[in-house]
Amino acid sequence: MLALCSGIAQEQKICPLMIEDEIDPEEFVEYKGKKIFMCCGSCVKKFKKAPDYYVKLTSKLLPQIDKSLLDSKIKIIEQKFCMVYPDRVVSPKSYVHEHGGKKYYFWSSTAIRKFKAKPDFYIERAKKNTNVKKLALK
User: Fold this and answer.
1) How far is CA 92 from CA 11, 13, 46, 96, 131, in A?
2) Residue where a domain stops, chosen among 17, 36, 69
3) Rounded Cα–Cα distance for residues 40 and 15 (Å)
4) What is the DSSP secondary structure assignment for residue 132, as one 8-state letter?
5) Burial (Cβ within 10 Å: 0-12, 13-18, ≥19) of residue 56
6) Do 33 and 59 belong to one domain?
7) Which of 82, 58, 71 is nearest to 134 (CA)?
8) What is the number of domains present in the chain?
9) Percent helix, strand, coil in the chain (nearest 5)?
10) Residue 52: its pLDDT value, please?
11) Which DSSP symbol is given to 107?
């Protein structure tokens, strides 16, 4: 069993929620019979709030997840990353704040507070975020 777990962990190198962090083999969730590894307990908790969404969005980072397991009914929102923490993936169930008539999604309430202090800075920075290239769907 340990050999199997470490084999999967070797295939999946990056946390699907904090995409610049390596996985911790002790932090994982079961998804349709497959283990998905995370970097920390916070990511495990967030993943459990929208598992189908996160799997579809980050499937390129999850070699153990077959394309047939992706839910075709899940619609991916335009914004993929937190406005403040550009390496952290967001979902429709993430924290939300409206600014200038538009909804923005955030990793945490702390991120919203930071955004409120300098919204224009974070909006401009988000336009330059290249992390989305790492999320190409299968």
Assistant:
1) 28, 25, 12, 8, 18
2) 69
3) 9
4) G
5) buried
6) yes
7) 58
8) 2
9) 40, 20, 40
10) 96
11) S
In the listed set 32, 51, 69, which residue is the last one of a domain according to the structure? 69
State the residue range of the domain holding 81: 77-130
DSSP 20-81: TSB-EEEEEEEETTEEEEESSHHHHHHHHHSHHHHHHHTGGG-TTS-GGGS-TTPPPPS--B
Query: How far is it, in rounded angstroms, from Cα 106 to Cα 82?
Result: 5
Task: Tell me what pLDDT residue 8 has.
Answer: 47
Check: CB of residue 23 under 8 Å from CB of residue 14: yes
Residues forming a β-bridge with 89? 81
**Are 44 and 62 in the same domain?**
yes
Token pair for 68:
């047939």
Residues 6 and 65 placed together within one structural domain of the fold? yes
- Amino acid present at 138: K
List, for the chain, all residue ranges whose pLDDT scores fall below the cut of 50: 1-10, 138
82 and 62, same structural domain?
Answer: no
> What is the reported pLDDT for 137?
52
End-to-end Cα separation, the chain, in angstroms: 28
